Each structure stands twice: as structure tokens, then as C-alpha cells.
Amino acid sequence: MAKRNNRCLSEMKPGERFRIEKVAIPDAVLRRRLLDLGFVPGGEVEVGQRSPLGDPTAYYVCGTTIALRKEESNYIYGEKIGHD
Amino acid sequence: MINATYTIALMGNPNTGKSTLFNVLTGLRQHTGNWPGKTVTHAEGEFVYRGIAYRIVDLPGTYSLYSNSADEEVARDFLLFERPNITIVVVDATALERNLNLVLQVLEMTDRVIVAINLIDEAKKKGIRINTKKLATKLGVPVVPMSARNKEGIDELLKTVDAFVHGQLHPTPIAVPYSVEIEQSIAKLLPLVKEIVGDDYPARWVALRLLDGDTSLLSALNQQPPRLTKEEAPYACCGSVKSV
Amino acid sequence: MHVADRSNLFDRLMEEAQSLAPADTREQIVTAIFQTSAALCRETVTNAPKAAKDHTLQIDRIVTSRRWGFVIMLAMLAAVLYMTIAGANVLSESLAHLFGWVEQYLTLLFQAVHAPHWLYGLLVLGLYRGTAWVVSVMLPPMAIFFPVFALLENYGYLPRVAFNLDRLFKKAGAHGKQALTMAMGFGCNAAAVISTRIIESPRERTLAILTNSFVPCNGRWPTLILLSSLFMAAGYTGSWNTLVTAAVVVAMVLFGIIVTLTVSWVLSKTALRGIPTHYTLELPPYRRPKIAETVIRATLDKTWYVLKRAVTVAAPAGVITWVLGNVPIGDTTALSAFAGWLDPFAKTIGLDGYILMAFLLGLPANEIVLPVLLMGYLSAGALTEIDSLHSLKHIFLAHGWTWLTALNMMLFSLLHYPCGTTLVNIYKETKSTKWTFVAFALPTAIAVAVTFTTARLARWLGLV
After folding, report:
1. Which of B38, B169, C113, C156 fits a disulfide with B34 by CB distance 3.0 to 4.6 angstroms?
2. In chain C, what residues touch B208 (CB-CB under 8 Å)?
3. Interface pTM, i.e. ipTM
4. In three state form, how does the secondary structure of chain B look?
5. Where residue A54 sits, what CATH number does that domain have?
6. Which class does domain B6-165 fall in?
7. What residue segments make up the domains of chain B, in order of their start?
8. How many domains in chain A?
């Protein structure tokens, strides 16, 4: 297991791509909601723009744009993918 | 008021144009807007096509039927207990992948489904091409491309509805293959589900929901009086409910 | 019991299921479904190369950017209001002319048939004028504001507003989607209260319900616009007048938002304590609305709505006000006695007895506040023929109005209790007398406190 790449989604910068390994949100309802929206293990996310006040951030997932606050993206773990 | 013979449920992710389609079909003026969640209550209307009256219900937009929210529960319970004759799942052609999730979930509950691929014009503009014939074959239910706001594809959709109620279509819905672990558990649970819940509900789907720990489903089933016998079932007239 | 049997069986079923279920069932299920969808898409969808980055991304890069996000929101609000005010000025003036012209003939008609004086008063001065005023003051702004707003809504701009403002709502302990329910409040607070259902957490939903009336609804826009144009922008003419009017109304809206955030913050630290719940916000792609269709539909809908309200609410209110204003009690009338009784308190908050009375009688619908006020003033003697909006200003001035009176009436209108329909909906949605009472009392207290402060301040600084 390549643990060294394990980072959370909130650390990613706009424009970077990310592959999800684990959605570890304690709140069960929200975890389910995120899974339904496409934040699934193995799924790919592209980081979009941050809100003018720094948070939330827009993410492109499954052809749609979903905004998440840091409180949520902090709990989504995975690895950065693609070229730098 | 027309005495509607068939009930159609409109389902779909939020903001896919369900309300627009609803307005086109019924001639009503349900408020529409480009933001998720604006249909907070479900709307009902009627229309007549080729001499047959339909009641159409615009359900709240949902991402899934896993009952994470009140909206999803409304949509799920409608499919389960009202048993619409046809469920039209409206999907956004520009985000097909996520939208198909809901289609797959609906197909686990009922096979009387038409997939309406809306916003096909937007998709074209973005360079997205969808092979709807192939998709229909894969899903095992009719797929109709359309643009509700340009009133394109509506006739095709209505023809499909008509064919459905006349028993000319024979859906063979795709089943999502789950992991070995889950499939084994489903197999073990199925006999018990059939024994306790009965044949009136989609057993494989109920088993899945139970494995997922969906207690709200059980309490909904529990509150529901035992189903009417086949002869009394409200939509069993015209022999179209199970005989297709 | 049969039911109990069923329950037991269901419990057994659930236990059985849970003993079979792997720990990460949900992940496994959802992942399987997603993999199936993805596989289906791979087989049936082809993307034109490089066409994927569409205009939605480019627009979002600007309208949600650090530099332009807030500037554009403000500019949009100002532009919408500017258009509304500029257009409404012209339309209101023509409508007022038209109604004045018709009134002459009505008067002739009543004289011709020798109708008794009280009947003429009741039907023409009460019923007709009340209705005519509601229509000419209320209809034009509504018939312009809502089509423009509907275009923005159908285009998909509202979720971006929610995205931009999210941080502020989070800081205030409120739900990010409250921005969406507030946008609905611009149309109608009563409808917006129902739209708070999109907020699932009861705590945040209550916050959104309690503060919704701080965004001006369609019954209050015209009051704000009219008073702002007559008093705040009085020193300017032409398009400068429109610009200043719009600026004042924008300031009012911003003040409403600040009050909303402040009240939400205080409540979330006290009576509705708790941390903001998690949520996700989808930013749908921009879609070019069907412009003609949207505009026509919104205009017709709003026109019909205003006319309906004029007949069902404003007309009866006009009659009642006229009766109260003309039934003598001793050497005065019921209306002026009531207004006189309210006057001392009203004066301390920079209003007068008639204004406060109009707000009280306007509880059923905010649209009738202004007509009731006018009826009150007119029945009490200063019977000017009204045929233009500027004659309105003379009526106000004749009753001792200053810019402070206008400002405080605007503030009171912005901040006071929600209308009757909204309160009924609040009760239906919260199913709580307590919260319904709070929804009434809290804004009222704030309205009184703010107007009291401005009145004190203005007098102390010698501005009035």
C-alpha cells in the first residue's frame, strides 16, 4: 500500500486532480450524500475554484460541480494524480 | 378533473428539468429555476394522449433513493407504495454518469421505466454524443433523448409511454453486479425477505436496503397495511401491471 | 396482535440482515453502482476532444473569484434595481394618470345619478382609490423586477451567490443554503418560508425561517423604491435621481442582509445553539434561459398576482380605512383617534401615528401599508387630487414628513414583523406557537430599536 501519497482533498490546489481512496466523514448522512454525488473510493476529482472568502471550494466530479466546505474535504483521503 | 387511468412518476437528480417536462406535458406552470432543490413539494397534473388519461407526479429531485433525506424518502415511498404505472427518470445528458446512478437504483425497484435524456441540446453544444440505442439495450428499458425546454423529443416520449401501457414493451432491466460478498449476503437474505415482506415489493432491492441498514424502509413497510389483493389493486385494470 | 407480529418479524429480518452485512456495505453498494454507470458511459458516450472545458468554468472563474465575486453580486443587485426603478417611474406615472382620468368620469357618473355622498366616498374614494394606488405603485416595479430576477435565476446565478456568501453564513452559524431561501424572499417571504425545506437541519432551518422577513418581499420593494425616490434622491434629477434611489435601496437590502447574519449569529449562540451542519452545494451549469418566454411568463404571473392581491386584499382594506376615517366619534373619527393614540410612541421612533397604524392594519399584506397610509392622510382632510407620484410627496410633506420619517418608514418596513400569510406559513412549517411568536416579536423589536436609534441620533446631531 502506497501510504505516502495519502493526502486529504482539502490540501489540493485548484487545477489539481485527485483520486479518492477513502471517505472517512464521521457524519453518516453526509458520508452517504457524498458517495451519492460521486465522491466514491476510486473516483476522480478535479479541484476547481475557491469561493472569494477562501472556503468552500468547487470540485468537479462525475461531470458536475459540487462545492464542499473544508469540514468535509478534510475527511476525504486519497492521492494526487496526473502530471504536475 | 379527468379520471386518470395511469399514473406516471417523474424522477431525476435535482435540476435536470423535471419541472420543465412536467409543465410541457401538463400545460401547467410549475415554477422552474436553475438551482437544485427548488421543487420542494411534489406537483401533480394530468394530460391525455391518444385517448388515454394520465396522472403525472413531479417528485422532488434526488441524487439517490437511499433515503438520506426527506425528499428521497418521498420519492422512494412513492415508487414503493403508489406503484406508478410508469416511472420516467429524467437525466441530464451533460452529466450522464452521475445521473445513471439513480436510473440503476430505480431499475432495482421497478422495470416499468423510461429514461428521458434531457438537455440533449446542451450536451451537443459541449461535444457530448450519446448512443441512446446502445444505452437502451444495455439498460434494458426505453431511452428517449429530448430537450424539454425546446419541446423536442416530447412526442417520442409520449409514444413510448403509449407503447408501454399497451403492453408493447418488454423491459429487461440491467442488474448491478455487486461484490461477491454482497451478492452472497443477498442470496442468503432473499428467502427470508420473500417470506416476511411478501412478493409485492422488489425482493432483491429490499434485501440490499436491509444489508445497508436502512431502518426507515422497514418502518415504512411496517406502517403500510398489507397490500390489496391483485383483483382490488387500483391499477390492475387493463391487465397491464404485471402481465407485460 | 397482527401488527406486533409484523413488527417482530421485521425486527428479525433486520437482525438477520445486519449479521450478514459487511462493514462497508454502503461503500461497496455505491461503488458498484458507480462502476456500472461509468462502464455504461464508456460504452455509450463520446466526448469531443478538448470541448469539455465549457463556458460555465470560464464564467465561474470570474463570478466566484476573490477579486470580482462580491463586486459582481453587488453590481447585479444594483443593475436589477436600477432597471426596476427607471422603468417603474415611467410606468407608475402613466398608470396614475390613467387612474386619475378614469376617476373624473366615475365622479361625473356618481353625480349624474345623484348618488349619496357616503356611497361616492365609499366606492370611489375608498374602494377605487385604494385599488388604483396599489396597482399603480405596486405593479410597475414588480412587473420589471421579477422578469429580470427570473432570468438570473434560470441562468443559474443564484447557487453562485450561495457559494460566494457561504463563509459568512457559516460564521453566523447558519446554513449555506439560507442564501437561496433569502433570494426566494425577494419574491415572497411566505413562499420563501416553505422553500426553507431545502435546509434539512431543524436548527438552521428555524434560523432561515426567523430571519427571512429581513429581505424585502414584493409587497415592500415598492414602498422602499417610492420613498427612496421621493425623499432620499430628492435633490437629484433625471438618471441621477434613479441612480441615487437605486443606491439607497441597495443599501437597504445590504442592511437587511447584515441584520440577517447578525440575528442568525446571535441566535446560534443562544436559543438555537449548535454548530453548522455539513452540506453540499451543487453549482449547476449555466443555461441560457428562453429569454422571451421567461420574461413574458414572469411579467404576466406577477401582474396577475398583483392585480389579484389588489382586489382581494387592498380593495377591502381601502374600504375599511375609508369607513374608519369617516365614521365620527365625538368630534373626530375612529381613524384619527387611533392614529392619535399611536402618535406619541410613533414619534419616538421617528414615524407618526398614521404610519404606525398603516403598518398595523397592513398585517394581512405588506402591499396595503402604503395605500392605507394614504387613505388615512387623505380622509383626515388634505384631500388632494392624486394624479402623479409627486403629488404624493406633497401629501407626505403636508403631514410633517422629513427625510428622517421616510428613512425610518423604510427601515421599519424592512425590519418589521412578517405579513399574516408568512406567519401562517411559519406556524405550518415549524408547528410551534413559540417560534411563530418569535418570528413576529423579534423583527418587531429590532425594527423599533433601529428606528428609535436613528431618530434619536438624527435629533441629537441636529440633522432634523
Report:
1. C156
2. 29
3. 0.90
4. CCCCCEEEEEEECCCCCHHHHHHHHHCCCCCCCCCCCCCCCCEEEEEEECCEEEEEEECCCCCCCCCCCHHHHHHHHHHHHHCCCEEEEEEEHHHHHHHHHHHHHHHHHCCCEEEEEECHHHHHHCCEEECHHHHHHHHCCCEEECEHHHCECHHHHHHHHHHHHCCCCCCCCCCCCCCHHHHHHHHHHHHHHHHHHCCCCCHHHHHHHHHCCCHHHHHHHHHCCCCCCCCCCCCCHHHCCCCC
5. 2.30.30.90
6. alpha beta
7. 6-165, 180-239
8. 1
